[in-house]
Write a structure and sequence with these properties.
This protein is mainly α and about 290 residues long. Helix 11 packs antiparallel against helix 12.
Amino acid sequence: MLLFIYSIYIQYIFSFSVSATGNITVVPILKTIGLGLGVLIWGSFNLLMGWASSRFGWFGIDPEEVAHPLLNYSGAGLSLLSAIIFFFVRSEVQRSTSSTETTPLLLDSRINNNEQGSLDESWVDNLTPKKKRIIGCALAVVAGLLYGTAFVPVLYIKNHAKNKDSRYAGASQFDLDYVFAQFCGIFLTSTVYFLLYCAAMKNKPKVYPKIILPGVASGLLWAIANCCWFLANNYLSAVVSFPIITAGPGLIAAIWGVLVFKEVKGLRNYLVLIVAFCIVVTGALLTAFSKV
């Protein structure tokens, strides 16, 4: 029995490799279209994937019903509209010139300045502005679709646990019981990608000292937020929680992108951004009320 439970747990851990793969697209997205626009686009497609998979029963999970389907579909439609509008926002990503932010921690200090400068450049820096925008938007869409599958394994196991003939029969119906397995899956997948990166860089990876402690702190914040998301799925259902939760990070990222990093400039871009975000918030509210 213990061996059976262990095998399912291991299978569940590795099922998160798909959603964790979205993390490797984040850096190119930030370097091409910026934080604000990047999070807004991948958040919109995260919303749509999470909503559609739970509403229509994709990937082998049971479709979820709502009290007011019209409100639910209207909310999802507005979210899709906002995602399309976000593509019309023009962003300008400024490359940092601070040496403290571009000096890798793990590179040999004996490397001369000319070699150092060439090592700091990535394939993104050599792209034209048009190619940067196309690649950045495409990666943001891919990241959003991958993130949108994050809770599919949980829903799959919970749904099949109700069937006595299923191998998952008797599995927990409380979402928070699966959070540690998700964290393990993401950690293992990230470790594999980092090892592949080290191999590709010939054992000279770029690890920037200034971001180590902030990275740990942001990981803790993400873990707390993700636990809250598990609880929201448990009490509201994914078809309602996804549109509500994914709307918030876009607003915060847009504020950082506009006020701090100056990625979005010009009255036209501001107006497009405001209209699109008002639409996505309206869609999230309609989806929330569809459950009542």
